[in-house]
Amino acid sequence: MKKVLILGVNGFIGHHLSKRILETTDWEVYGMDMNSERITELLGHPRMHFFEGDITINKEWVEYHVKKCDVILPLVAIATPSTYVQAPLKVFELDFEANLPIVRSAAKYRKHLVFPSTSEVYGMCHDDEFDPENSELVYGPINKPRWIYACSKQLMDRVIWGYGMEGLNFTLFRPFNWIGAGLDSIHTPKEGSSRVLTQFLGHIVRGEPIQLVDGGAQKRSFTYVDDGIDALVRIIDNKDGKASGKIYNIGNPSNNYSIRELAHMMLELAAEYPEYRDTAKQVQLVETSSGAYYGAGYQDVQNRVPKIENTVSELGWAPQVNMRDALAKIFDSYKDNLVDAKDLIPERRQLARD
Predict the structure, then answer these.
(1) Coil, helix or strand at residue 118
(2) E strands present in the chain
(3) What backbone phi and psi angles, to 5 degrees, belong to 43?
């Protein structure tokens, strides 16, 4: 019976992973977060152990539970491009500095560290597919602080790899735009809470214009969360140690669409739902520049397609959910509670996130 420590358990990945673990395994979940609204239904489960806290404050609790548990998943991070541009030091302090002691504790107590890298670590790589073993990691100049997130994550990847050379059992996973129900919390509009899909859904429900940064030509490979969690559970299980010392892209290359195409797909789908139809007719697509939307320190990636051959062959995994079905599942999850949907990210936030 594994004991799994999830820091950031109330987040998008954290709450979906906890639910899957409790439903399909005999593992125990020890979770910490500053909020608990996504995991309310799990709190009474006998194998769910939740502590309301902050990794930057409750350091003794964290170290004790790293020592206590078998698998460690530090999922706490700022992942909002507007914050990269406006407060880069804040990103570095949480995403790298606050997570480094957790990595060191995992090495000290010889635990399996499953760490969330990011598709952004590849930066402006020109490869048709991003290869975790061979693709070059390309960032813009220092006066573009947008890259502080990718750079912080890359440095952590390299530190973890270095600890691995000294015996740390680790797996790095790189999510490619995971989407699904509960993607954003409507109650806690904090850093990392806004993703393009739910931002667009909020605009559709409110009948507001959708802003397309730089015309929305940039493409992303979207992955339905159930597919992503399937891969992640296999990594945690780590049958025969296959996932140890590995880097896995977890994404769906078949769901590669531009942000403009995503907006059109969502509007077309909304027209099929009586709950969304009337307000969707009011939505207009408006183009804006990245400089106007994020600030002068922003740059973007035009294409982001994962190479997943090793994820498929080593984990026995493959993505199953196509884009239309994924969008329909998300529309279904909100249609009976449009009051909540109307509260989805009313303010300007970010264009895309892992």
Answers:
(1) coil
(2) 3-7, 28-33, 48-52, 71-74, 112-116, 169-175, 178-179, 210-213, 219-221, 223-224, 246-250, 256-258, 285-288
(3) -65, -25
Tokens of 101: 């002691």
Task: Tally Cβ neighbours within 10 Å of residue 39.
Answer: 23
CB-CB contact of 250 with 136 (8 Å): no
Confidence tier at 220 by pLDDT (50, 70, 90) = very high
Tell me 56's DSSP state.
T
Q: Which sign, positive or negative, has the C-alpha torsion 108, 113, 116, 121?
A: positive
CB 47 within 8 A of CB 20: no
- pLDDT, tens digit, for every residue of 275-285? 999 999 999 99
Q: Which residue has the tokens 């912080």?
A: 152
C-alpha Rg value of the chain to the nearest Å: 19
CA separation for the pair 4, 27 (Å, rounded): 7
First-last CA distance in the chain = 30
Place of tokens 């991003």: 130
- Nearest partner of 320 among 237, 230, 198, judged by Cα: 230
Q: CA–CA separation, 107 vs 112, rounded Å?
A: 9
- pLDDT (tens digit per residue) in 257-275: 999 999 999 999 999 999 9
